[in-house]
């Protein structure tokens, strides 16, 4: 069965850590595509000052040269908080014959029990967690996921054999970049300076629309 990766985030803005993470997942799971899903109203963060439309456009610019990456704006079309469980429900209807894999950094996985209907996520998708710099290089598996973990080396095979229900962990660490740090850097840096943490097309868009400047 083909595997579709689903990578949700605030992407405020998208940065090279996100792209590196997606590349690692693609190479590990051999996904046919990775769908980048910007949150319109992230339930666990203050409402972003930059609109969902701007954040989605930056994702589009960042991924345009990668044939297997797709911008999915399904959360922009819904009202209310952008709950991942609703996104997965929608994806399951849309792709009934594929394995779905929700992708997240380790910091997100640790906070998973605060997510709306989090114990149901595995009823729709597999979960792939990626190590994030400055966190322990072990996965603290939630008790609710006991018995569902597969070793990294077996993940591609196991995830393709059933459509949902498994958890795996990648210890490869993407570059230590966060959107928070990028926003702070952009606010301080002179407009003409480069920002190596984000793709050039995204930096150009940010400058053009005067985003993240103080
Ligand atoms: P912020 O600093 O504003 O909280 P962020 O950099 O964590 O943002 P998000 O868009 O919230 O970016 O992240 C989406 C997903 O990508 C999350 O699951 C997060 O854990 C993961 N992620 C983002 N950057 C990295 C990174 N450098 N390494 C590993 N995972 C990452």
Can you put this structure into words, describing what you see?
- It is a single chain.
- The chain has a single domain, classed as HUPs (Rossmann fold, 3-Layer(aba) Sandwich), CATH 3.40.50.
- α2 links the parallel β2 and β3 (69-71).
- It has seven helices and six strands, in the order βαβαβαβαβαβαα.
- A six-stranded parallel β-sheet has the order 3-2-1-4-5-6, with helices on both faces.
- The protein has 214 residues and is α/β, with parallel strands linked by helices.
- The structure holds adenosine-5'-triphosphate.
- Adenosine-5'-triphosphate (ATP) is lined by residues 9-12, 17-18, 21, 104-105, 107-108, 130, 132, 174-175, 177-180.
The third-level CATH topology is Rossmann fold
Number of helices: 7
Helix content: 25-40%
Q: Determine Rg (CA atoms, Å).
A: 17 Å
Number of DSSP-assigned strands: 6
User: Which structural class is indicated by helix and strand composition?
Assistant: alpha/beta
Write a brief caption for the model.
The chain has one domain: Rossmann fold.
Relevant terms:
single chain, 214 residues, alpha/beta, six-stranded parallel β-sheet, 33% helix, binds adenosine-5'-triphosphate
């Amino acid at each position: 069965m083909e595997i579709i990766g689903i990578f949700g985030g605030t992407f405020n803005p998208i940065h090279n850590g996100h792209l590196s993470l997606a590349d690692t997942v693609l190479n590990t799971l051999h996904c046919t595509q990775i769908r980048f899903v910007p949150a319109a109203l992230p339930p666990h963060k203050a409402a972003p000052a930059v609109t969902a439309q701007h954040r989605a456009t930056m994702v589009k610019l960042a991924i345009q040269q990668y044939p297997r990456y797709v911008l999915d704006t399904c959360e922009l079309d819904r009202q209310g908080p952008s709950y991942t469980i609703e996104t997965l429900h929608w994806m399951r209807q849309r792709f009934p014959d594929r394995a779905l894999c929700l992708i997240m950094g380790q910091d997100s996985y640790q906070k998973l029990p605060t997510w709306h209907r989090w114990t149901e996520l595995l009823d729709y998708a597999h979960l792939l967690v990626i190590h994030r710099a400055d966190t322990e290089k072990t996965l603290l598996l939630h008790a609710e996921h006991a018995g569902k973990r597969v070793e990294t080396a077996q993940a591609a095979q196991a995830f393709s054999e059933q459509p949902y229900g498994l958890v795996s962990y990648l210890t490869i660490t993407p570059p230590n970049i966060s959107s928070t740090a990028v926003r702070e850097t952009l606010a301080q840096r002179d407009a003409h300076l480069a920002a190596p943490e984000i793709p050039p097309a995204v930096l150009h868009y940010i400058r053009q629309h005067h985003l993240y400047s103080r």
